[in-house]
Amino acid sequence: MDQRNIGAIEAGGTKFVLALARADGTVLAETRIATRSPAECFPDLAAFFEQAAATHGAISAFGVGSFGPIDIDPASPAYGTFTTTPKPGWSGARYHDVLDRFGAPIVVDTDVAGAALGEWEKGAGQGCRTLAYTTVGTGVGSGVLQDGKSLMGFSHFETGHIPIARDPARDPYAGFCPFHGDCLEGLAAGPAIKGRWGQSLSELGSPADKIELIADYVAQLAVNLILLHMPDRMIFGGGVMKAPGLIPALRKATQARLAGYIKAPQLDPGLESYITAPALGDEAGITGAIALGRRALA
Ligand code: ZN
């Protein structure tokens, strides 16, 4: 059994999950810290991994699944650096600044690509050749894997900012995205739901009309993911997707918008196995970060 240690980081908009794990995935130590500025978070990261390494042995590789926008091109000199994020203090911050002291290789990908990888290896994405994982939470993003490799162009995908058809009579909320207003994230992410209705869908009791509205917005992304990538399965996670009834409403809205155009055995009647919640639940992200670290070992 591979006894080497992996340092894993799942960095989200509200919290970081940090873990030290064996290469086989056995977690030896884990903690959560609130997402603040890098000046506040990075010392906590260093302290956790220093303590974990002192207790369990040296760290041989790091895997990072992070919110973005972030440079995830291993060939880029700025690999692992946050680019144009509006999050205070994060533009220009680089994971290597805090992790280089451990002298171990580092693999950085998006939080959604990490979660996709976790689900592909151990969760609802097992056996899929092409897998799309989307989170709808503080923000919206998608990772697409092909044969276990995450796809990107000159940068990672930005599915949260796709344009959305919105009927102002049905939904007068203009969206909160500082760039686009009513893009998908501007309309359907957690802050949009609170901005529009004052509470989360779960707090509101998941009323059918509100669930259907958000499902219809997320379905517009789901249809685009199908048309662009033809994934074998699509997983939808994140805090917003936990609202009771949202996944079933998303299946229905996606099927309605496809309008019978795509016929394939993957698209089962009712899309019940095609569109699913993450099987690993909240563990998808850190499982994926450990898997990214395993790639850094290789
Ligand atoms: Zn936007």
Low-confidence stretches: none
Q: How many β-strand runs?
A: 10
CATH architecture of the largest domain: 2-Layer Sandwich
CATH level 1 name of the largest domain: Alpha Beta
- Distance from N terminus to C terminus (CA atoms, Å) equals 15 Å
Bound ligands: zinc ion
Rough outline = globular
Largest sheet, spatial ordering of strands = 3-2-1-4-5
Q: How many alpha or pi helices?
A: 8
How many independent structural domains?
2
The CATH topology name of the largest domain reads Nucleotidyltransferase, domain 5
Beta-strand residue percentage: 15-25%
Q: Could you describe the largest sheet, including whether it forms a barrel?
A: 5 strands, mixed
The CATH superfamily label of the largest domain reads: ATPase, nucleotide binding domain
H-E order? EEEHEHEHEEEHHHEHEH
Radius of gyration: 19 Å
Label the structural class: alpha/beta
Structure report:
By secondary structure, the chain is of the alpha/beta class. The chain folds into two domains: 5-114 and 282-297, Nucleotidyltransferase, domain 5 (2-Layer Sandwich), CATH 3.30.420.40; 124-277, ATPase, nucleotide binding domain (Nucleotidyltransferase, domain 5, 2-Layer Sandwich), CATH 3.30.420. The protein has helices at 38-56, 95-99, 111-122, 184-188, 190-197, 208-229, 246-258, 284-297; strands at 5-11, 15-22, 27-34, 59-66, 106-110, 130-136, 140-146, 149-150, 233-237, 275-276. The protein is globular, with a radius of gyration of 19 Å. The structure holds zinc ion.
